[in-house]
Amino acid sequence: MIKAVIFDCFGVVLDIMRGTKIEQTLELVKELKGQYKLGMMTNVPSRYSLDQRFNPGELDELFDVVVASGEVGWDKPAPEMYIMTAEKLAVRPDECLFIDDVPAFTAVAETLGMKTFTYVNVPESIVAIKKILEESK
Predict the structure, then answer these.
(1) C-alpha distances in angstroms, 51 versus 7, 46, 67, 114, 132?
(2) Is there a contact between 3 and 97 (Cβ–Cβ < 8 Å)?
(3) pTM for the whole structure
(4) I want to staple 8 with a disulfide (CB 3.0 to 4.6 A). Which of 55, 84, 93, 100 is the partner?
(5) CA 19, CA 15: separation in Å to the nearest integer?
(6) What's the total number of domains in the chain?
């Protein structure tokens, strides 16, 4: 049973090319809030660099845990980063759904026992993520 959903930032929550938020993903995060523990795990130098891309306090409103690689000493695809994020969410890796747009990163999560989804495009990905969560109940 999935108890936590961990989102990558760039390519899943933020559109790298446009430098904008992917509103459909943010709507999904808001929908899931309260039903699942929510995390963001991403390769950036600091939490500060993430906060600059969001409204003040927005990340903390959306996510229970935000893990910036530069602050923890590991980058994806280091398994330790995935395990630590699950621990911060107080769940086991096999209780997580990990969502990223880089197949190599979802592959590592899968080896740790996490359910995974490789984010491709907005409408299809949102539908697929909801289906995965519904089927895990």
Answers:
(1) 16, 9, 12, 27, 29
(2) no
(3) 0.97
(4) 100
(5) 5
(6) 1
> Sign (positive/negative) of CA torsion 126, 38, 60, 65?
negative
Helices 23-32/122-135 angle, 10° precision: 20
Q: How far apart are CA 63 and CA 46, in angstroms?
A: 16
> Alpha helix (H) ranges present in 33-118?
47-51, 58-62, 69-72, 79-88, 103-111
Are 7 and 118 a contacting pair, CB within 8 Å? no
| Residue pLDDT, tens place only, 22-42 | 999 999 999 999 999 999 999
- Residue reference for tokens 């904008």: 20
